[in-house]
Design a protein that fits this description.
The protein is an alpha+beta fold. The chain has 6 helices and 13 strands.
Amino acid sequence: MQDNLDKFVKHVYKKWKQDNHVSEGEHVNEEVLASFYDGLLSKDEFEHIKAHLLTCSDCMDSFASNFPVVALEKLNVPEVSMNVVKNLILSEKKDSFLEIILRLKEKILEVVNTNGDCLVGLELIPAPVLRSRQIKDFKDEVVILKDFDDIRVEVKIENKDKNVFNLIIVVKNKKTQQVLKDLRVTLIREGLELESYLANSGSVVFEHVSLGVYKVEISSVEARLASILLEVKA
């Protein structure tokens, strides 16, 4: 089934390219793709990159692998093709990132959406169960966990005063539950690195973070291990 979807998506782009008589041209590097996703390009540059992505399967693969599915909305792909592409990427990426969307309301944190498991008291509740029980409000803090291959990432968001929060990241070995201390955790906003620390003490704390959309990267010396997409809004 996965191979069939791959072939269908490639066929859609190939046919579109043939119909519009365009060539792939030079490939786009990851920095430019990040600027495209974050809306940092001029109108002409944006349209140029969008046209390239619609005709170059290699760059589209790179774009889809490194950025959230919602970014495909920027491409204005026909609806039938968009649905296939979204389903394909979701099937490939469902375990590769943790998404957390919260709303901060005075001393209450509301879980708007997440694909991780939420810690409620001593019970670890999967996201679908959380929604079915209509559990969404948490006083002062919320803890969300997700497994990535051999590691378990624990994300704690602490509600602070004046529309700010603390973000605490702990990474453990999934089997032994031993805290890992040799990983780097980086906080990114709009493509810019804000803070980056080694988890030498067993956890990384980002203090007094303002409301907004963030990406948190967890990496070892060899590779990126996990990505967290975090949005906290009023």
